[in-house]
Write a structure and sequence with these properties.
heterotrimer, A mainly alpha (about 350), B alpha/beta (about 350), C mainly alpha (about 325), B: alpha/beta, Rossmann fold, six-stranded parallel beta sheet, six-stranded mixed beta sheet, 12 helices, elongated, C: about 325 residues, mainly alpha, globular
Chain lengths: ~350, ~350, ~325
């Protein structure tokens, strides 16, 4: 019943099932693009595409941040707070201390990684559910940031920051390429490195992983560290986009951070991630948000649609999971299945 | 209150009608500009903008002046709304910045696409590409409000400042202004505390009642510089039946006006949201048509936030002028509008 | 192991103990710091802010009892709040009808949560994250974030009225707390609820309809969220669409500080209530001590961690002895 670990083996969807999910997602996205473009031609204007690419970049990285923790079967409610801590740290380092941009950015990323490490360390050492720990640490980090910064925006950052945020490559923002680059790195991590496989093994079945010599605690701590660094990167992307370091960044990341990976097929119970799926999931969410706004469906109903889409996506995810499990573990009792992941 | 409510619900139809008429009539309008007035989020303060926009559209013959509200007070929702409106063909924006700094990157993109924008009601932080900021001089308003409170207190006492959202940079300005007014009394009036983040109903109710519960005998005056805490403080003082503590609020919510009438509040600082929307739409139309540009050497006011500020007017409502202040504000609006072209614009 | 325990040790082993001590210390410190603390009006203010938080905490506690969680308490509360406000202002429903309809909406929302969780077998976290977004969406779509202000005078008077230091508003939470304590200790469904949370497999083997109990817990949780929302409307005197947005942290903080295990089966009505008292005292004390408002967030987080650590320590010690 606990959220952090599952004691039984979790079947990973077959290669075919995974591809079919990605293709299905891509088809849905294309359909929405056709729909929005035919109803509101402005949807594919270069102005809108640029705006879309920039918010997509942030949504993708927020999704990655949650995805790497979901890989271990845990969750990280503190990504928004970690993000804003990194944002304010970068602002302080650039504006008050006057450090060069790359140094300040690197230090802010380090801070994010450290806060993530702290989460992971406390979770592993205390054995308490990651939900509780990150719920409390989210409030601690945010409070600490507010105490130290007095909620003052840093708005005299070097002009290169805002210039980079406005830069266009064709009609896309370079930030999107940064996000895709991070995605490529994550694919390498999870596909081709021992560390990535250890993280997945720790999520799939911690006990079995432990028995076969995988340092489960270390894997969980590393996943959280990575999550912290990714949350910090998403925050820094917003600093580029806004040209300022603001204390209000990150407070509405929770829903999108789960939407992207879950839509993309990452399992909540851990043990399986889909990087490409997370990118497509973020694309679907960004498309819908922008499209519904352009079509004047009313920004007030937007939240309802996002909730219903998430609901729909997890149900699909669930039945896909059941299907995959039936195929690999035909003897499993479905009742137990539902008990475990609920 | 109720009127506003109905207004919000029923605005879809007239808007549609206006859009259709715009299509059919085409050149019947003096200008085919589509102007959007965008508050930072849902807040009763901005309600008069809707009527102001409609009146401006009628009076100046503008194709559309629409009031568009982001669903929550979040900067990203506001910028996404602006971006989607550009996509829908709106070509001039009057914006209350959801964040004084954060709005600038969006504004810069607008100006790169030759779309003029104004900061209305609240300013964007310099350097900025908004043509100018047209709103209440928050520093001055908080300063005058505190002065009025000090006068009501007879020049001495302990006061508490109820302020709005911490993330709103105007809050810091208001805190400074309250401190300044108090410091001018040479210690006769002291600011005991600034209570912030009270511009939401639940938080205001909890914090203000806790304050009154704990310290009502130690404080002599309350200065509120945000809409909601003014309402809540007026309500709480009435509940408590306390006429000793003097309150000076901001804005003209009916509850605050009633409290002034019945002696539970000394006064409230009126702002001019209607004028902001009306004159804002008028100027945006001129800028978007390309008929006018903003004068470089116009007599702008300098504030800590921006070098290009125009005051939309503020005045103290007290028992003396509670019945007539609306006319006074109308007069201010008409005056600003009539002299605006000569004072601030270069026109063809 | 109880044989050679001193009185002090036995006191410490009780989960109320730390809370009771903390509350006493807080009361003494605040009372000596400020004479205004124990005045009638301040007590009234504290009791009044106690009401809504307590019911919100109970709403979360019931889902925690079966090892689930309800991220939609606040969103559902907001929806009920504006529904009740709308029914009274727009449709002119009499107060009792509107209140009952509001409670029904809350229970229905909880029922949806429960059925979705049980039928699909999906993690309750995700289900309620999604329904929370949907509930908020309906709320915003209906109201466009504009509150309902014109509520019946009698209803608003109930929210502000008091008998000396006792707000009328305190009556429903006290009745709910008593009913809940009775329900969990003395009735069959209540005990089944705890049994399912404590050990789902054993409970199922002994014939308890596990799924039905989980659905019941979610439904009751929704019902209580609705009740909290109605009280919040009465307290504020207007139906704000923003009611509930800041309930989430509080809803988990109180039951967890009160010792509820996230794995289910272990909850205490009294300890949760004490935790809420502690939170309210701390909030009131912050204003009283003129503490920097930024500290509130920080302290709440620290308090949760401290409580979790303490419970952990106690569990380890109990297990080791």
């Amino acid at each position: 019943m606990t959220l952090s670990v599952s004691s039984q083996s979790r079947a990973r969807p077959s290669w075919l099932a995974e591809q079919s999910n990605l293709i299905g997602l891509a088809v849905i996205i294309v359909l929405f693009w056709v729909l929005f473009t035919s109803l509101a031609p402005g949807f594919v204007s270069s102005f809108n595409l640029f705006a879309l690419s920039r918010s997509l970049a942030v949504d993708i990285v927020i999704g990655f941040s949650t995805m790497v923790v979901l890989a271990t079967g845990g969750m990280n409610l503190a990504i928004g707070s970690i993000g804003v801590c990194a944002v304010m740290a970068s602002g302080y380092l650039m504006q008050t201390i006057g450090l060069p941009i790359p140094v300040a950015m690197a230090l802010a990323l380090l801070l994010g990684a450290f806060l993530g490490w702290l989460n992971g360390f406390v979770i592993v050492r205390s054995g308490v559910n990651s939900f509780i720990i990150t719920l409390a640490s989210a409030s601690l980090f945010l409070g600490g940031m507010l105490i130290l910064s007095k909620a003052q925006t840093f708005n005299a950052l070097p002009p290169e920051i805002a210039a980079f945020g406005r830069m266009r490559w064709g009609f896309l923002s370079p930030l999107l390429f940064v996000a895709l680059g991070l995605g490529a790195a994550l694919i390498v991590l999870f596909r081709f490195t021992a560390l990535g496989r250890e993280i997945l093994a720790a999520g799939a079945n911690p006990r079995a992983a432990e028995l076969s010599g995988v340092p489960v605690g270390r894997a969980i701590i590393i996943a959280h560290t990575l999550s912290g660094a990714l949350a910090a990167s998403a925050g820094l992307m917003l600093v580029f986009r806004l040209g300022a370091a603001m204390p209000s960044i990150g407070q509405d990341w929770l829903l999108p951070s789960f939407l992207a990976p879950v839509l993309g097929g990452t399992l909540l119970a851990g043990g399986f991630v889909s990087v490409v799926g997370t990118i497509l999931g973020a694309l679907l969410v960004t498309t819908l948000r922008s499209g519904l706004l352009v079509m004047q469906v009313g920004n007030f109903w937007l939240q309802l649609f996002l909730g219903l889409i998430l609901l729909f996506a997890v149900m699909v995810d669930r039945y896909r999971g059941v299907y995959a499990e039936r195929r690999s573990l035909g003897r499993k009792n479905p009742r137990q299945t539902s008990g475990r992941s609920a | 209150m109720n009127n506003r409510h109905r207004g919000a619900r029923s605005r879809a139809l007239p808007m549609l009608a206006a859009a259709l008429m715009g299509l059919a009539a085409g050149s019947a309008y003096a200008s085919d500009n589509k102007i959007a007035l965008i508050p930072g989020g849902p807040h009763p303060y901005f309600a008069p903008w809707e009527q102001a926009g409609k009146d401006a559209a009628k009076d100046f013959g503008i194709a559309a002046v629409d009031f568009k509200v982001p669903s929550e007070w979040k900067l990203n929702l506001q910028t996404e709304l602006v971006e989607s409106l550009v996509t829908q063909g709106y070509n001039a924006f009057g914006i209350f910045p959801g964040d004084a700094v954060g709005i600038n990157s969006t504004v810069e993109e607008l100006s790169a696409n030759n779309i003029p924008s104004l900061a209305l009601a609240g300013c964007a932080q310099d350097p900025t590409k908004v043509s100018f900021c047209f709103g209440t001089d928050v520093y001055n308003s908080a300063y005058l409000g505190t002065k009025a409170l000090i006068e009501a207190l007879g020049g001495k006492g302990k006061i508490v400042h109820l302020a709005g959202l911490l993330v709103d940079p105007n809050t810091k300005l208001r805190m400074d202004a309250v401190e300044k007014a108090a410091s001018e009394t040479n210690g006769a009036v002291t600011v005991v505390q600034h209570i912030t983040d009270t511009d939401a109903q639940e938080a205001a109710d909890q914090k203000i009642n806790a304050l009154l519960g704990a310290q009502k005998d130690e404080i002599d005056g309350l200065i509120s510089t945000a809409y909601i805490p003014s309402v809540v403080a007026a309500k709480s003082l009435r509940n408590l039946g306390d006429k000793r503590i003097k309150l000076v609020g901001i804005d003209d919510d009916q509850i605050v006006l009633d409290a002034i009438k019945d002696g539970f509040a000394a006064g409230t600082m009126a702002q001019n949201p209607y004028g902001q929307g009306y004159v804002g739409a008028y100027v945006l139309d001129l800028l978007a048509s390309g008929t006018c540009t903003v004068k470089a050497e116009a007599p702008f006011v300098k504030t800590p936030q921006t070098e290009r500020f125009i005051d939309s007017g503020t005045l103290l409502i007290s028992n003396a002028n509670a019945a007539t202040y609306k006319d006074d504000l109308k007069k201010i609006t008409t005056e600003i509008q009539a002299s605006f072209k000569d004072k601030y614009l270069d026109c063809k | 192991m109880t044989n050679n325990m001193t009185l002090g040790q036995r006191f410490l082993a009780n989960e109320w103990s730390a809370l009771a001590v903390a509350i006493l210390v807080g009361l003494v410190v605040l009372a000596s710091m400020s004479p205004a603390f124990l005045t009638e009006f301040n007590l009234y203010v504290m009791l009044r802010s106690f009401c809504v938080v307590l019911i919100v905490a109970f709403a979360q506690m019931l889902t925690l009892a079966v090892g689930h969680m309800n991220l939609s308490v606040g969103a559902l509360g907001g929806l009920v709040a504006i529904a009740v406000g709308g029914m009274m202002e727009k449709w002119g429903f009499p107060v009792p009808v509107a209140v009952l309809a509001g409670l029904a909406i809350g229970a229905a929302g909880g029922l949806i949560n429960g059925l979705l969780t049980v039928r699909t077998g999906i993690n309750g976290f995700i289900i309620t994250l999604a329904t929370a977004s949907a509930f908020t969406g309906i709320n915003l779509g209906i109201t466009e974030s504009i509150p309902f202000y014109n509520l019946p005078a009698g209803f608003v008077a109930f929210g502000t009225g008091r008998l000396y230091a006792l707000p009328y508003l305190l009556l429903p939470p006290v009745l709910i707390a008593l009913a809940l304590a009775f329900f969990l200790a003395r009735t069959v469904p209540g005990r089944q609820l705890l049994a399912v949370g404590g050990n789902p497999h054993a409970a199922e083997l002994s014939g308890i309809p596990r799924d039905r109990v989980i659905v019941m817990a979610h439904t009751l949780s929704g019902l209580l969220a609705g009740a909290a929302a109605i009280l919040a409307v009465a307290q504020l005197g207007s139906a704000q669409p923003s009611i509930g947005v800041d309930w989430l942290l509080m809803s988990f903080a109180a039951p967890i500080i009160g010792g509820a295990a996230l794995t289910g089966g272990h909850i205490s009505v009294a300890a949760t209530a004490l935790a809420v008292v502690l939170i309210v005292i701390i909030q009131n004390g912050m204003v009283l001590a003129k503490v920097d408002p930024y500290w509130v967030q920080f302290l709440l987080g620290a308090l949760i961690l401290a409580a979790v650590g303490l419970n952990r320590l106690r569990a380890v010690r109990a297990g080791g002895a």
